[in-house]
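Bit of a strange request maybe. I'm writing a small parser for structure token strings and I need a real example to test against, not something I typed by hand. Could someone generate the tokens for this chain?
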Amino acid sequence: QVQLVESGGGLVQAGGSLRLSCAASVSLFSTNSMGWYRRAPGLQRELVAGITGSGFTHYADSLKGRVIISGDINNNTIDLQMNNLEPEDTAIYYCAVNHPNWGLFWGRGTQVTVSS
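Reply from user aminoacidic:
Good idea to test on real output. This should exercise your parser:
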């Protein structure tokens, strides 16, 4: 199976930045796709950003260019740079990996809280 461990969450003020990291137990070359999702209290989980095994990226339109997803092949991490954070970005952020043979895996999540 695939194990995913998120880190980098925390408390920041509005306008600040955070860089989240997801450490994967498998090589990123072996995955179909990877992504970051988030779930605010009482709301549905939504996609923040995704990246395919071939390196193509996509983002939720609502993020307005404030996030960048990248894969670090050497360290087997999936990183999410978030800038100009707003209170509505407060949520638990989850890393996900779709493996071609083993299926979909999720991390436990990391809390991001943005204060006004």
